[in-house]
Amino acid sequence: MDILESVKMAATTLVANKLRSSLTMLGIMIGNASVIAMVGIGQGAQRLASEQFEALGPNVLFVVPGSQATRNTTLEVPKTLVLEDARAIATQVPSVKEVAPQINTRQLVTYRNKNTNATILGTTSDYLSVRSFDVETGRFITEQDIKRSNQVVMLGPELAKKLFDNQNPIGEQLRIKNLSFQVVGIMKPKGSALGDNPDETVYVPITTVANRIVGRTSPYGLEVTAISLSAKDEDSTGAAKFQVENLLRLRHKINGEDDFTVRSQKDLLTIVNTITSGLTLMLAAIAAISLFVGGIGVMNIMLVSVTERTQEIGLRKAIGAQEQDILIQFIIEAVILSAAGGLFGTMLGVGGISLVSAFSPLKASISPVAVIVAVSVSGGIGLFFGVVPARRAAKLDPIVALRSA
């Protein structure tokens, strides 16, 4: 039998049973759409994370207390970095341009009858340039504020809106831990990144936070939560990391495991890319299960079709149809079901990715590889799961088939 004739007969049979064919394709559609959407969303998450880390600058380093092993095994953050460490890095490491130590805490911030819990970030004037932040109105922390432990604050724009609505907050007084602070500046919007939202942060001179809000908790000096620093240029980042590690080992008299960790923007980006790639692969694998289930649905329906069409098969074989003709027709029917399901599933997945991109910060993208693989797999599933019922139909004895009718 001609292949084109087999395709026409298969299409006619499937159209004659619209509801059954549609329900059979549904499993393939859901599987394809899930795979394409999950891969696209996963790649969007990876791209978003990359953009957020790249916004930090290619030459930014972060020094945090405790080794990686210590931070993974203890709930309490080690207290091994002090303000003098930051000053030593600024004066003794030639490849470092600027250093910005910081102390983080959460406190209740009150303005008149409004209050909210917010992150209090004590830092220095270099924080702006190290972290690529800008001031919208007013000013940032000055060296004079740090020397005098002035009770002044800069607000993130979202926090300023929450506390002051449309009122100009510059010059107003708010309270933190029952202490009065004057608002001297509003930061430019930065956007949240990895659970941290600088737009809802209160920026305070680091000495003010240490002396009047959290107190001094380290016997070795003024304890800091982290130290951000910028290398002179991107090429100096590796040298800066090496020099900072050696300096801190000398200052902390370390012979064994480090009590600090130095990470670059590239290190953090590598970690995040590894995590997001793993999650994308896991989500795609879970979604692919529905493709397998859809294939089983195709085989089930084709087996039912063989049973229902026993008389037709017997009649065709009685008038000269070969086993190969019957085999090809049923395989073509299964492939058409799977390929059509794959096509509609691709359209559904692409539509889902477009909606995610339009209504969320994730810049989800359509992966041509995922589309090709999903459609190919769905067609292959039809071929694979269609073989068993097709062989069963081809092997039917025409006399038995006509009698059973």
TrEMBL record:
> What protein family is recorded?
Belongs to the ABC-4 integral membrane protein family.
Instruction: Give the superkingdom in one word.
Output: Bacteria
The major lineage groups are: Bacteria, Bacillati, Cyanobacteriota, Cyanophyceae, Coleofasciculales
Indicate the segments forming the ABC3 transporter permease C-terminal domain, all copies.
Answer: 285-398
Species name? Funiculus sociatus GB2-A5
Put simply, this protein is called ABC transporter permease
Bilayer-spanning residue ranges: 21-42, 281-306, 326-359, 365-388
Keyword Protein biosynthesis annotated? no
- Please state where this protein is localized: Cell membrane
Q: Assign the protein's first listed, main location to one coarse class.
A: membrane
Where would I find the MacB-like periplasmic core domain in this sequence?
A: 21-246
Task: Quote the InterPro entries the UniProt record gives.
Answer: ABC3_permease_C (IPR003838), MacB_PCD (IPR025857), Macrolide_Exporter_MacB (IPR050250)
Membrane topology, record value: Multi-pass membrane protein
